[in-house]
Every structure is written in structure tokens, then in C-alpha cells.
Design brief:
The protein is of the alpha+beta class. It contains four helices and 14 strands. Strands 1, 2, 3, 4, 5, 6, 7, 8, 9, 10, 11, 12, 13 and 14 form a 14-stranded mixed β-sheet that branches. Helix 2 runs antiparallel to helix 4. The radius of gyration is 18 Å and the shape is globular.
Length: 212
């Protein structure tokens, strides 16, 4: 972010570093290409809101769990857990908020929250980072409601498995040689609102000490 510490690095990187960002080539697994997967991915991405639960294994910071709620067009909130600690995060447009890191048993009320400016909320939403791969997957295998395909980039292949429930993608798994992630999507259209906790102490994020 400009002039301040990056508040929510996990949201963009934890899942998406499995396959990298953009420019990926879709690997061929079979000749059939059912249309239900891309239709479900599109419907999920166009939903007014949804709830996400993601686990990342083998990331730079070890195993992580992300519990988030997305509201279109530009709101994201929830928490990230790693090594027995939790940080609460909220993104409204390009305004980011992050709580101090606390025990996983601690709720968000009364915490000190840093405020800064960063990328749009959509750039930090795991579903909007992963589901476009399902939209573009033209060589897919299908077994019931489960779809599989591959993405190859920079000599590394990631294996995707997606589950479609009704009109939406309810689960997407990505496995790569050094890292894997599982993203569950639920409460599509019925997720709770995203808002800062009552009584929060909002402070400006500290200036970044990194050299330009």
C-alpha cells in the first residue's frame, strides 16, 4: 500500500501463490468440457455475497485458515488464523483495516485496529482469485458434481478440483508441489453484513520502513 504497511498480505497471497497470478496455461486432462463448471463459477462470482472458509497448507507462514465474508461490489471482512493467533481484517473499497494479533479465542470488540489504503477488496477476495481459473478451464473431467482440471505456469502444474452445489461452486481445492489450499463457499446470497466492531480504536498504520 502507498505510504503505509501492507495490512492484509494473506488475503491476496496465501491462496493465489499456489498457481501464480495471471498468464496461466490450462493443462489438458480429458477431451470432454462440460459447461456446468464455468456457469457455476460465473454465478458464484456474480452473487451479492457469500461466506468463505479457506485453509492453506505449506505457505510461507505455515498453515493458515481464512474465514471471510464478501459483499459485492467492494467489501470483505473476517479473520486469518496462523500458529494459534488471529488477526481480524476488513476491506471497504481500497480502505483496509487490520486488528492487532490476538489469541484465537478473542473476539474483535475493543481491539486496536490499524487503517490504511491498499488494493480494491476484490483483489483480496480468495474466491475472485481462484474461480476465474474454473471459468477458463476448457479441458475438464467430471464425476458427478465434482470437476477436475490443471493449470500450468512457469513449469509448475497445479491440480484443481471443484464441487458444484446447485447453481454455485461450493468448494475448490488447489494442489501444487509445495503448497495446497481448500476454499469452501457457503451462504451465497444470505451472508451476514461486514462492519467494523463497536468500540474499536482506529489508528493510522505505521509508515513503511521498506526501502523503495
Amino acid at each position: 500500500m502507498s505510504g503505509a504497511q501492507r495490512l492484509v498480505p494473506w488475503l491476496t497471497l496465501a491462496l493465489l501463490t499456489v498457481v501464480g497470478a495471471g498468464g496461466a496455461a490450462l493443462g489438458i486432462m480429458a477431451s470432454n468440457a462440460p459447461v456446468a463448471l464455468d456457469t457455476a463459477a460465473t454465478s458464484t462470482l456474480h452473487a451479492a455475497n457469500y461466506t468463505e472458509l479457506a485453509t492453506v497448507t505449506g505457505g510461507e507462514d505455515g498453515n493458515e485458515t481464512l474465514s471471510l465474508v464478501w459483499h459485492a461490489p467492494d467489501t470483505l471482512g473476517g479473520h486469518v488464523e496462523s500458529q494459534g493467533r488471529r488477526a481480524y481484517v476488513w476491506v471497504f473499497g481500497t480502505t483496509e483495516y487490520q486488528s492487532t494479533t490476538v489469541a484465537v479465542t478473542r473476539g474483535p470488540s475493543g481491539l486496536t485496529i490499524q487503517k490504511g489504503t491498499g488494493q480494491p477488496a476484490s483483489a483480496s477476495d480468495p474466491a475472485q482469485g481462484l474461480l476465474p481459473y474454473a471459468q477458463r478451464a476448457t479441458h475438464v473431467t467430471r464425476s458427478g458434481d465434482t470437476y477436475s482440471f490443471e493449470v500450468t505456469q512457469d513449469g509448475q502444474t497445479a491440480h484443481f478440483t471443484a464441487t458444484v452445489t446447485g447453481p454455485y461452486v461450493s468448494r475448490i481445492t488447489v494442489s501444487a508441489p509445495s503448497q495446497s489450499s481448500v476454499l469452501g463457499i457457503s451462504q451465497v446470497g444470505t451472508s451476514p453484513p461486514v462492519k467494523l466492531p463497536a468500540g474499536a480504536k482506529i489508528v493510522a498504520a505505521a509508515p513503511s520502513s521498506a526501502a523503495g
